Amino acid sequence: MRHFPLKCNFTLKPFILQTLPLFTSGLYTFLQSEPLWQLSIHHGPLSHSGGWSPMVTDQEPWLQVDLREQMEVTAVATQGRYDSWDWVSSYLLLYSDTARAWKQYRHEDGRFVGNVNSEAVVQNKLSHAVRTRFLRLVPLDWNPSGWLGLRLEAYGCSYKSYVADFDSRSSLLYRFNQKSMSTVKDVISLRFKSHQAEGVLLHGEGQRGDYITLELHRGRLDLYLNLGEIRLRFSSGRVAVTVGSLLDDQQWHSVHIERFNKQVNLTVDSHTQHFQTKGEGHSLEVDYEVSFGGIPLPGKPGTFLRKNFHGCMENLYYNGINIIDLAKRRKPQIHSVGNVTFSCSQPQLVSCTFLSSSSSFLSLPSAASATGGFSVRFQFRTWNPDGLLLAVQLNPEPQRLEMQISNSRLQLTLHSSGRPKLPNHSTAQSGFNDGLWHSVSLNTRNLQITLAVDSEPSSSIELWEQLEPRGNLYFGGCPTVDCQYLTPAFQGCVRLIFINSQPMSLNQVQQGLLGNYNELQFDTCNIRDRCLPNLCEHGGRCSQTWSSFSCDCSGTGYSGATCHNSIYESSCEAYKLIGSSSGFYSIDPDGSGPLGPAQVYCNMTGKIIVIHTLSPLPFLSSTENWQKFNYSASAEQLRAIVSGSEQCQQEVVYNCKKSRLFNTKDGSPLTWWLDWEGEKRSYWGGFLPGVQQCSCSLEENCMDMNYFCNCDADTDAWANDTGILSYKDHLPVSQIVIGDTNRTGSQAVYHIGPLRCYGDKSIWNAASFYQESSYLYFPTLQAELASDISFYFKTSTPSGVFLENQGLKDFIRVELSSPSVVTFSFDVGNGPAVLSVKSHLPLNDRQWHYVRAERNVKEASLQVDQLPLRFLEAPADGHLRLRLSSQLFVGGTASQQRGFLGCIRTLTVNGASFDLEERAKMTPGVTSGCPGYCSGSSSLCHNRGRCIEKSNGYVCDCSQSAYGGTTCNQEVSVSFDMESSVTYTFQEPFSVMQNRSSQASSVSTESSSRAREDVAFSFVTSQRPAMLLTVSTFSQQYIAVILAKNGSLQIWYHLQTDRSPDVFSPVLTNLADGRLHRIRIHRVGKNLYVQVSSGEPPKGRENLNEEVMQAAFKGFIGCLSSVQFNHVAPLKAALTNRGSSLVTIRGPLVQSNCGALAESTSHTLQDKEQHGNSTQKDLAVIAGVVTAVVFIAVCALAVISRLLYQQRRAQRSSSIKEENRHSMYTDYRTELHLNNSVRDSMKEYYI
pTM for the full model? Predict the structure, then answer.
């Protein structure tokens, strides 16, 4: 936020007040003799007159203020008209230097809050000051029981202005007193307004390769800055830092650049970019001069040609030097090139804005043409990919000509009836919805239509006869009485309209003297960049239309309308609870927080997270040796994983020969390690922190009891000190330092094992509330733009508030509003918004129920258990920020009413877990934990089974699990022959089949793009091709999983019926090999992830309908086991509910036990993982003379494919191997063989 000058809050007077002279209204006008103070706000005794009120017949009233000169405005205050029922309750504020081109002041949602009566004063402080001469207040809402009226005051101060005008052929050169100027700190500030989207504002360079260039490019501000990196001198290597957007709007914009050494802050208006410069140097060395407004000598070495700046600069300071003041006083340091003037010219580029995508239009008469035909020329800018620009009826009848934007291209269509049809003409250039001004010229003379766009060569269409306009020309849209065809109206800005070379005056249109219009805003181009700032999280790509923006989350690992939600689980424990088997997984330890996903190995039997070290061999020396360790996760991710786990440990091994750990006279350690924060730790594995001892001392079995470690005995024989580091606050090990290797005969081999973490301490973190007035409190939610809240609850009471956080007016609340209804409500300034989910069964049944509520700037959602996800769209151009100030209350409210009675567990907000148990220990009326069999971490029910409390025990509800048995751990397998099949009919539409983690799509709010599939099954077959599983709808959408002719796995998605299905093969090897294979498919919106038991990089294929038909014809011969689709287990339903109307069985089905193979396979995988861990070690040999380097082999496979709706792409990283001979360990072990390999079977596809 910008800080205003001290005491810049004076009342700005006098005013010159004007009203819009609309011809249709007899407006109240202010006479010259009327005292201006009657329209001012009175804080003391009120005047008995004063105030502005338009005539009731005025359709578009506004009030305009002339401050006589440019002022810095910091606040605006309003008051109703004296002694009346007239006031304005909300309004827009526009500002201008010329009273011709206006810009709307953006006050969050654009609206300013006005008055609620005629006497109270409401002041709105501007978050950033504006420097302007004219203000315009446009009323939006007023007293419904009266009329609109107001008294107005503006607050601010005057300021000193130094202005220079550049005409795109001029510049100012600031020349140094010496040959070059070298600076370690630079401060550059200026204000500018531009007539064009391109132009250099500042440039300087030096012979050693340094340069600084500030330029407008496509309406954005680019800063190129390099310190001493010679290879970046040429344009191909230059990288710009870009800030701002739509800066060619003829309004003032402020720029501030601060550089200290390599750190730079670039601020444009209120948007700041922090970055570090390229190059090795820390100073900027510029030779001879710095130029402003352009590069006057394009032949200079190392420069690149750019358009010069066309516009005005104000208060240009370069390292404290007022450049414009020096130029104005003709000082010798300043050299002027071309015509630089010191007053800002005011171009008459008046724009109008087409507001509605359905009803806006501008109708203008066609001027007479002496040569026949007609010509039209104008400029436009928009964000929309489609819209009608021009429509005109033609003679001879019936013909019409349309110019429109279609799929971001400009398209010209001549509609002729009864005449030879001419082809549509589309420009080769695309991207006309980029928000920039584009010029278009159309001419129908000389029996041809000529179209010219921007600076591209014109193109022509030959005609059979001369065309003449019939009636009016329609811009941006067309009333239905004149145009009997459907074309989206244009939303955007238009200016500089010429018909038959005659300029069209928009002022006359506005006054009703020329043409006609509907839903237009004059004197301003009210375009805004909704992607600045980018509200898409986690690297989501923002795109926009005129009225909204959307986020493309492909490849980010997140989903939702703003890419807020992680598509990964937060821990191995969470994967285990949904029935996943051991293997490599991506986990997101902070959920929707800023950390990304990390790849780990999950051992589901022991619920272990294994994070391997990826460190190379250490650098060895004859004195002190150290090794820094890298992991397959970042330091922040590691810390989040460790903090969220119940316990963690890391094995350390030190094999020594005359190499001590701690045995010194002064007690200082010879060997130590650094924890995750870089703190020095001198205790070894197996002992407590802070004590320089080893595990053999604790176990009293050291080889020499005079020492606390085996290696401290300092013998000529190999010894070993091994132990486990288990103090979580110190893990993982980041570095090790070995000191005692500089003596003759000293040798050492160390090993730091992988980090292993157990459990998830947040999943069963619970609190019990047994007093209605009790609650837990936590710090205020940080939820201005986005927040997600999830938890489990169980209760027997009919209602109660789960959590609440309030602000001055805003609030957010989740509650059980009735026995079967959960309600999520909030207010961000647009009025209370309420989302409710009603269950067909009571929720106060003393069983655990899941709730997830999310709110972002696009939408809000509420999920309860497996019930359909409910959404609520955010209002267009409404308030965005949720402003909270009180503490977060859990289990109750600040008023201590409607408190919750029952248990809450696993409370997570924005990816951060809340420690309910610890806070409950110090809160009356609340206890830690929750009573009952189903409230612990013992995982009584497996594979998505739900634990149900009973009075004398518990039972497992396996209805949504693919497994059976009392604890949902018995596999359900069926043997099929060629005639066998099972069909399951869903009771809900395919497009909304979602499970509890269902989330909104990244690019659309339609239910089909919000869909999520979780498919898992195992199979054994020798047949190929074979149909494994299909899901289809009546609208011909389908998902198919088949084995192709060669036995490879193929997954088909046909979600868009107007295009070919998308197909890929995650495994190219033959899976019809009579062995068990496990498949898991997971889709969220446009992101698809596949895990297979083995595989190769996927290959995309298309147009394989015949192969699917062959697979369907062949059917399936073999065994299927544990089939799960979202929360439905169709195979189990076929065996246990044979009479159900939802299940159709054809042919013989024989229950089998082939799934038992899956269990043995799982154990085999775990054994392999454990065996890999035993050999996957980072070792180093340390001695006085280095004679060998240990080899480490790392194999990594990463596959990324773009699929469904977009192009595909694949990326592979190949294996890397390094081999070196071994000779040093003959006295330690006969052979040392290391093989560090990581293979990830999870493939990721971005649809």
Answer: 0.78
Name the band, by pLDDT with cuts 50, 70 and 90, for residue 470: confident
Joined together, the tokens standing for residue 1022 give 């020798």
* SS3 label, residue 324: helix
Q: Chain centroid to CA 651: how far?
A: 39
User: Taking the CB of residue 289, how many other CB atoms lie within 10 A of it?
Assistant: 19
- pLDDT, residue 484, reads 60
Q: Judge whether residue 1243 has pLDDT over 50.
A: no
Round the CA-based radius of gyration of the chain to a whole number and report it.
Answer: 37
- Check: CB of residue 1197 under 8 Å from CB of residue 1142: no
pLDDT digits (tens, 9 = 90+) for 373-404: 889 999 999 999 999 999 998 887 778 888 99
For residue 607, give the nearest of 643, 635, 648 by alpha carbon.
648
Instruction: In whole angstroms, give the CA distance from residue 695 to residue 685.
Output: 6
Select from 761, 760, 763, 759 the least CA-distant residue to 904.
763
More confident residue, 38 or 895: 895
Per-residue pLDDT tens over the stretch 205-215: 888 888 899 99
**Cβ partners under 8 Å of residue 672, min gap 6:** 680, 681, 682, 736, 737
Model confidence at 1108: pLDDT above 70: no
Q: Bridge-partner residues for 611, per DSSP? A: 755
* Angle, CA of 526, 527 and 530, to the nearest 5°: 130
For residue 60, give both structure tokens.
């578009």
**DSSP conformational letter for 1107:** H
pLDDT class for 1139, splitting at 50, 70, 90? low
SS3 1143: strand
Q: Which helix (H) or strand (E) holds 864?
A: strand 859-864
- Name which of 201, 174, 264, 278 is nearest 233 in CA terms: 278
Q: Residue 175 half-sphere exposure, CB side, CA atoms within 13 Å?
A: 9
Choose between 664 and 886: higher pLDDT: 886
**Nearest Cα to 113, choosing from 126, 123, 98?**
123
Query: Do residues 308 and 194 make contact, with C-beta atoms less than 8 angstroms apart?
Result: no
Strands 1118-1125 and 973-976: antiparallel
User: What whole-number distance in Å separates Cα of residue 1029 and Cα of residue 164?
Assistant: 72
CA distances from 367 to 469, 479, 503, 579 (A): 10, 21, 10, 75
- Residue 1055: closest CA among 1247, 870, 1246: 1247
CB contact at 8 A, 1181 and 1225? yes
| Both tokens assigned to 1129 | 């287990």
Those residues whose C-beta lies under 8 Å from the C-beta of residue 972, and which sit 6 or more positions away, are: 962, 963, 964, 1121, 1122, 1129, 1131, 1132, 1135, 1151, 1155
For the chain, report the end-to-end CA distance as a whole number of angstroms: 39
**pLDDT computed for residue 1124 by the predictor:** 77
Q: Report the half-sphere exposure of 639 (CA within 13 A, side-chain side).
A: 11
